[in-house]
């Protein structure tokens, strides 16, 4: 079973890219972020014609998350329970694993960017991550077969940035508090699927549109696929697909994926 995450940075613009990639990469489950569409405009009928079931939570212009699957999707949760937030950044669902009777719980996160260290938006990011931690602590008990994935807006360590001197403790996405929050999530019993198979640095999932970021490979690995203890042994591969970042009018993110079984 191949499970992927992709910040498409506007599904309205990137739908042809998504359809092309789904056909080429053949994942079984996909978590999307930054769909930037109200629910009434989500292309669920178009995707259904291609064999995909979908659940989604969106808003105009900003944010928006969705889960696509080949199998049945049940027990959908939108937002962080008990955390009031108008921004559509979280969707979770239980998805039937193709060809098996063992469902997988999928939690799709579009983590807050945080703007700059020390700002109100940065404080909001840390509070948001703390709320996610409290929720996932209970979720992993209810659903041991858990995959938490999405655009985390945090580079886990210096291997995941093109320039550690620039991306340091004073910089958003790499500050100590943000990385500590990510470590706390992993301490619940979650494992970075990519790092289970790759130790090298310099492999990224996001490149700034500005200053020829992709051409110069000045990127960050901030799109993560975390698997629970119960799925760790089944995690047989993981990677980042750079090809869609080379297409015309691409998202600034590339799909990240993990293979189970």
UniProtKB/TrEMBL annotation:
Keyword vocabulary terms for this entry: Hydrolase, Magnesium, Manganese, Metal-binding
Record Gene3D superfamilies: Endonuclease/exonuclease/phosphatase
UniProt source species: Marilutibacter maris
Site keyed Transition state stabilizer: positions: 153
Source domain of life: Bacteria
Example of a GO MF term: metal ion binding
EC number(s) from the headed UniProt entry: 3.1.11.2
Cofactor note: Probably binds two magnesium or manganese ions per subunit.
Endonuclease/exonuclease/phosphatase domain residues: 4-253
Family the UniProt entry places it in: Belongs to the DNA repair enzymes AP/ExoA family.
Residues given in the record as Mg(2+) binding sites: 7, 34, 151, 153, 252-253
Site feature (Important for catalytic activity) residues: 223
The name this protein goes by in its record: Exodeoxyribonuclease III
Cofactor(s) listed: Mg(2+); Mn(2+)
Site (Interaction with DNA substrate): 253
Manganese is among the record's keywords: yes
Organism lineage: Bacteria, Pseudomonadati, Pseudomonadota, Gammaproteobacteria, Lysobacterales
Region Disordered, annotated ranges: 242-261
Biased composition annotated in UniProt, kind: Basic and acidic residues: 242-252
Residues annotated as catalytic: 110, 151 (proton donor/acceptor), 253 (proton acceptor)
GO biological process: DNA repair
């Amino acid at each position: 079973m191949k499970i992927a995450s992709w910040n498409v940075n506007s599904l309205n613009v990137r739908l042809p890219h998504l359809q092309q990639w789904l056909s080429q990469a053949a994942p079984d489950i996909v978590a999307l972020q930054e769909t930037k569409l109200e629910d009434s405009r989500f292309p669920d009928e178009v995707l259904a014609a291609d064999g995909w079931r979908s659940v989604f939570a969106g808003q105009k212009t900003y944010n928006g998350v969705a889960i696509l699957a080949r199998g049945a999707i049940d027990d959908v949760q939108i937002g962080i329970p008990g955390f009031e937030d108008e921004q559509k950044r979280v969707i979770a669902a239980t998805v039937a694993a193709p060809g098996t009777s063992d469902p997988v719980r999928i939690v799709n996160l579009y983590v807050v960017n945080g703007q700059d260290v020390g700002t109100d938006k940065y404080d909001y990011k840390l509070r948001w991550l703390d709320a996610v931690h409290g929720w996932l602590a209970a979720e992993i008990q209810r659903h041991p077969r858990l995959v938490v994935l999405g655009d985390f807006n945090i580079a886990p360590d210096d291997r995941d940035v093109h320039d550690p001197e620039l991306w340091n403790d004073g910089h958003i996405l790499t500050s100590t508090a943000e990385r500590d929050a990510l470590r706390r999530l992993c301490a619940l019993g979650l494992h970075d699927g990519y790092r289970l198979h790759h130790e090298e640095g310099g492999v990224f999932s996001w490149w700034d549109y500005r200053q020829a970021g992709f051409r110069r490979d000045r990127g960050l690995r901030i799109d993560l696929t975390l698997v629970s203890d119960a799925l760790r042994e089944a995690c047989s591969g993981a990677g980042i697909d750079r090809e869609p970042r080379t297409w015309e009018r691409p998202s600034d993110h590339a799909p990240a994926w993990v293979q189970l079984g």
